[in-house]
Design goal:
The protein is of the alpha/beta class and 320 residues long. Helix content is 35%, strand content 14%. It is built from eleven helices and twelve strands. Helix 1 crosses helix 11 and helix 4 crosses helix 6. 40% of the residues are buried. About 3% of the residues have low confidence. The structure holds nicotinamide-adenine-dinucleotide. Nicotinamide-adenine-dinucleotide binds next to helix 4 and helix 6.
């Protein structure tokens, strides 16, 4: 099938090409993100292959339908960026890659946590400047801490497994906890997990019901100095509340692989343009904030799994 691959810069092109050797689709790469303005690029394509921050709202999907696009084959797990009702209205199926490497994201949680706990980001910069002093670099042990997981799906449980390996007590909340959980963790209410965790890691999808689940009220119930890690979706945290909690010391460390107002999420309140414009600048004034660029999935193994499943999805569609 003729496949238009969007946002190609954020995904290793050679991995896609190598995986496609098994499938033989005709791939055309566009650096642009897919949205209403770039939809005309999909003319003469059977399939569009968007990535995590592409925005497929009603207008975009209507344009794709007029161009004859038959399938939206996401090369990511989350589908926040796709108006599924519009896809159904225009009879365009949507496929995604539900699980490609939960371990990749779970390991990134610990990359963020270990950097924050041992301040290696600061040490790295100092040593490069010839400064070998240790002042201000005292960290904390992860061993023995209470590690809270919100969302015990694939990534949440992979994270819980690693936390157990570090010698943490693991608490978890999920409205649909796994029936046979193979990880040694205690399931409690969301409020109990929030109130008792030294380290809190977010693994719930972004729904309207989970939007800003970390806010001024819930932060006030947490242990002073709590370390919060978000590799899930930026909208789970009310950034304004987080900034205030960082200032007061209520949040002792914040590790973000995702942040509010990344493109492609529909129901976030974008009216606060000040926050939108300088959100990263304001967060990065705190030395105990670490931000990465939505790269939790970015391992060779995960990329290969994503590419293989995406092309398999296209094959399955073509086969009916
Ligand atoms: P999953 O579907 O396996 O698990 C999500 C879990 O969250 C489910 O068990 C669900 O019951 C639970 N849940 C739903 N509502 C909840 C609530 N209100 N409170 C607590 N739990 C709730 O998904 P997954 O593969 O583990 O992925 C989790 C999230 O990670 C995705 O939604 C996506 O946003 C994010 N993600 C990020 C990256 C990255 O690169 N940073 C990569 C992949 C996925």
């Amino acid at each position: 099938m003729r496949v238009a691959v969007f946002d190609s810069k954020r995904f290793d092109r050679s991995t896609l090409e190598a995986a496609n050797q098994l499938f033989g689709h005709e791939l055309v790469f566009f650096e642009e993100r897919l949205g209403a303005h770039t939809a005309p690029l999909a003319e003469d394509f059977d399939v569009v292959c968007p990535f995590v921050n592409d925005k497929l709202d009603h207008k975009t999907i209507c344009r794709l339908a007029k161009l004859g696009v038959k399938l939206i084959a996401l090369r990511c797990a989350g589908f926040n960026g796709v108006d599924l009702a519009a896809a159904a209205e225009f009879d365009i199926p949507v496929t995604r890659v539900p699980a490609y490497s939960p371990e990749a994201v779970a390991e990134h949680v610990f990359a963020l946590l270990l950097t924050l706990s041992r301040k290696t980001h600061r040490a790295y910069n100092r040593v490069r400047e010839g400064n070998f002093l240790l002042e201000g670099l005292e960290g904390f042990n992860i061993h023995g801490k209470t590690f809270g997981i919100l969302g015990s799906g694939k990534i949440g449980l992979a994270t819980a497994r690693i936390a157990r390996g570090f010698g943490c007590k693991v608490l978890a909340y999920d409205p649909y906890p796994p029936k046979n959980c193979d990880v040694d963790c205690t399931f409690l209410s969301q409020a109990e997990v929030m109130a008792n965790s030294d380290i809190l890691s977010l693994h719930t999808p972004l729904f309207e019901s989970t939007y800003h689940m970390i806010n001024a009220s819930t932060l006030a119930t947490m242990k002073p100095g709590v370390v919060i890690l978000n590799t899930s979706r930026g909208g789970l945290i009310d950034t304004k509340a987080a900034l205030a909690a960082l200032k007061s010391g209520q949040i002792g460390g914040l590790g973000l692989d995702v942040y509010e107002h990344e493109e492609g999420v529909f129901f976030e309140d974008l009216s606060d343009s000040v926050l939108k414009d300088d959100i990263l600048a304001r967060l990065t004034t705190f030395p105990n904030v670490l931000i990465t660029s939505h790269q939790g999935y970015l391992t060779g193994e995960a990329l290969n799994n994503i590419a293989m499943t995406t092309f398999q999805n296209i094959n399955d569609f073509a086969a009916g």
